[in-house]
Write a structure and sequence with these properties.
about 90 residues, alpha+beta, Alpha-Beta Plaits, two-stranded antiparallel ribbon
């Protein structure tokens, strides 16, 4: 989950949210073991909500660990690094 730069609701804020979404959804099909990836944009506009959430599923813990170091993932992180102001993460087993 991320909070992105820009005043909430502004054109810059919305563009940053879309860029983050498009960047991570472009990883679909590029990384072995990444079964699903979905990026959602918050529409609630409540002050305590994060702006963007990424939900992904991996075939194994090893696949998640490989994803974290995969060049495509590292490039995506670098591409959006300046857009975000906060990042939160939850990894869990299904």
């Amino acid at each position: 989950m991320w909070d992105v730069r820009g005043e909430r609701g502004s054109a810059t804020h919305r563009a940053n949210m879309r860029t983050l979404k498009e960047t991570f959804e472009a990883l679909r099909g590029q990384i072995p073991g990444l079964l699903t990836i979905e990026v959602g944009l918050d529409f609630s506009a409540v002050d305590y909500a994060c702006d963007v959430v990424l939900v992904s599923e991996f075939e194994s813990l090893e696949a998640l660990q490989a994803y974290q170091q995969h060049p495509a993932h590292l490039a995506a992180r670098k591409h959006v690094g300046d857009l975000r102001i906060a990042r939160h993460q939850v990894d869990y087993f299904l």
